């Protein structure tokens, strides 16, 4: 004789739900149903309703060979299993929501982070633009609380602006002049996903020298003519802060 019991992983039927409420479902099938109900709160509430209805019917037709306390314990067991399933479902949903939030945050950080190459390109462009800006000894010294104070090494701030490198990427540019009125460009941007590089590294592009480093979730690049006095001292001072 072949068994007519449904496979343990087949979708629950009305008969399964009724048997679960009655406490007559096989342990394997009951475990599958509890997991199913934990993922479907609406269905879990329906099963709880069946359980209460079943309890009321049993109470109405109470017999002497089945104490009320036994049936009450059975009902509490069913409700306890349902609540446990609901809690598991809530925990799973919370974990999934947290993972999705972290993925979204990581994507946003990656989209707003300026690459090293993009920052270097911006520094070269800014240095080229200083030639047309005609900064000179007559250019007034500016004060900006966000600008590194490099007066001790003979560099004075003459300009500052925010660069828009892309719809989501920003960088801050500072222009300094040394004692010879030669420009030194400093550009920084947020880089929360970039590995730290506290010691500056030099890059030569023709007559232009770039000094780059990354600290405290920020990228920095100092740019200037390779013969400009104070260029490397500026990088030294800023990496020793």
- From the 3D structure, determine the CATH topology of the largest domain: Phosphorylase Kinase, domain 1
Strand order of the largest sheet: 1-2-3-6-5-4
- Uncertain residue ranges: 102-106
Strand content: 15-25%
Query: Quick one: overall form?
Result: rod-shaped
Given this structure, which CATH class of the largest domain is correct? Alpha Beta
Q: Percentage of helical residues?
A: 40-55%
The CATH architecture of the largest domain is 2-Layer Sandwich
Summed up, the helix count is 6
Q: Give the end-to-end Cα distance, rounded to a whole number of Å.
A: 84 Å
Number of domains in the coordinates? 2
Overall mean pLDDT: 79
Give Rg in angstroms: 35 Å
How many DSSP-defined strands?
A: 6
Biggest beta sheet summary: 6 strands, antiparallel
Structural class, judged by helices and strands?
Answer: alpha+beta
The run of helices and strands is HHHHHEEEEEEH
Describe the overall structure:
A hairpin with a 2-residue loop joins strand 5 (208-215) and strand 6 (218-225). The chain has a six-stranded antiparallel beta sheet, with helices on both faces. The protein has two domains: 14-111; 116-239, Phosphorylase Kinase, domain 1 (2-Layer Sandwich). Residues 102-106 have low confidence and may be disordered. It has six helices and six strands, in the order H-H-H-H-H-E-E-E-E-E-E-H. By secondary structure, the protein is α+β, with helices and mostly antiparallel strands. The chain crosses the membrane at residues 91-111. This is Transmembrane transcriptional regulator (Anti-sigma factor RsiW). Keywords: Membrane, Transmembrane, Transmembrane helix.
